[in-house]
Design the sequence.
């Protein structure tokens, strides 16, 4: 049993908040990893901006502003340069990267990475490729994210009505996706609906919310095209929505280093039509659990097929469930655990 400390100083959250309200992918992953490490028998403390002092799922939570212990068997610094220097006497240090790693090339990251040489943890091959070989830091590891428990264990179900869903960041191509839906997808599938569960509240940053607001206004203008703008949801409620959806639809972005939204839909057995960009080809098995399209017309054609062909949908639904059977957080926790050895 190891003493493990995790720290993040980004948005305000804690383990209970992850169950109470929608969170971004990095915050969800942080809370789920902490709980998975505790479930494996480790003594886990998690520190985050604005965290309440509480015990949740075996993890002791506290605000990062209150300070951290000096020692741990493994210290996991999450994405921010300010937490890199904390827990100064930890036996092993990992720096968990979530976004495209070009931001690490700033001097405020390079200096502490050179000085402390933590193990750099990326979420996939595409993600690791965003950090050049000459960048500072210690060994590099790829540890894919897991999927939260509410999205796991769903059984096989018959083809649902033609309902597509978007659950990612509206700034990552939602304008173009809704236009493609209105012009090229829904005209071929009358009565189809596109549910957009998204909003600025997920990101806890007024500047991001301000950038998202005009995108959402343009989405509302497509209500006549079967597009329904809905609020983002906590994990359990979102899983219930996905259970009634036929298609995860997402054009993607080069900034997508893992796409937890796609992983959650795949774990629910929802086939996907996604763009061939960023980490999406790592999340969706092309032709098996969905389609990875190289162009907008190809994306529209894939969406139409999955919305209308029951046999194709059923095969890909079964394949997605089978491939996601072990998609929980235990494997990721075991990989982090090994860093403490």
Sequence:
């Amino acid at each position: 049993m190891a003493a493990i400390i995790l720290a993040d100083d980004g948005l305000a959250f804690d383990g209970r908040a992850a169950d109470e309200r929608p969170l971004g992918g990095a915050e969800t992953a942080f809370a789920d990893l902490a709980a998975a490490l505790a479930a494996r028998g480790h003594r886990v403390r998690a520190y985050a901006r604005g965290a309440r002092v509480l015990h949740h799922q075996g993890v002791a939570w506290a605000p990062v502003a209150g300070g951290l212990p000096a020692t741990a068997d493994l210290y996991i610094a999450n994405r921010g340069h300010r937490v890199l220097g904390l827990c100064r006497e930890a036996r092993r240090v990992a720096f968990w990267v979530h976004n495209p790693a070009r931001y690490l090339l700033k001097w405020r990251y390079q200096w502490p990475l050179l000085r402390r040489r933590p193990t750099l943890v990326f979420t996939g091959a595409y993600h690791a490729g965003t950090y050049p070989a000459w960048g500072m830091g210690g060994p590099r590891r790829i540890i894919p994210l897991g999927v939260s428990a509410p999205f796991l264990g769903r059984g096989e179900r018959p083809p649902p009505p033609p309902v597509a869903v978007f659950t990612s960041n509206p700034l990552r191509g939602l304008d173009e996706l809704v236009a493609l839906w209105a012009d090229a997808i829904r005209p071929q599938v009358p009565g189809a609906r596109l549910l957009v569960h998204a909003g600025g509240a997920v990101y806890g940053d007024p500047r991001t919310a301000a950038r998202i607001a005009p995108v959402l206004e343009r989405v509302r203008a497509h209500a006549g095209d079967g597009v329904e703008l809905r609020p983002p949801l906590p994990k359990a409620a979102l899983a219930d929505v996905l259970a009634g959806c036929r298609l995860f639809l997402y054009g993607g972005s080069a900034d997508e280093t893992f796409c937890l939204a796609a992983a959650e839909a795949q774990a629910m057995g929802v086939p996907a039509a996604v763009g061939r960009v960023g980490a999406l080809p790592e999340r969706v098995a092309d032709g098996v659990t969905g389609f990875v399209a190289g162009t907008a017309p190809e994306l529209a054609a894939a969406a139409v097929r999955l919305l209308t062909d029951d046999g194709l949908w059923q095969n890909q639904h079964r394949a997605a469930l089978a491939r996601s059977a072990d998609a929980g957080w235990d494997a990721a926790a075991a990989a982090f655990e090994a860093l403490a050895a």
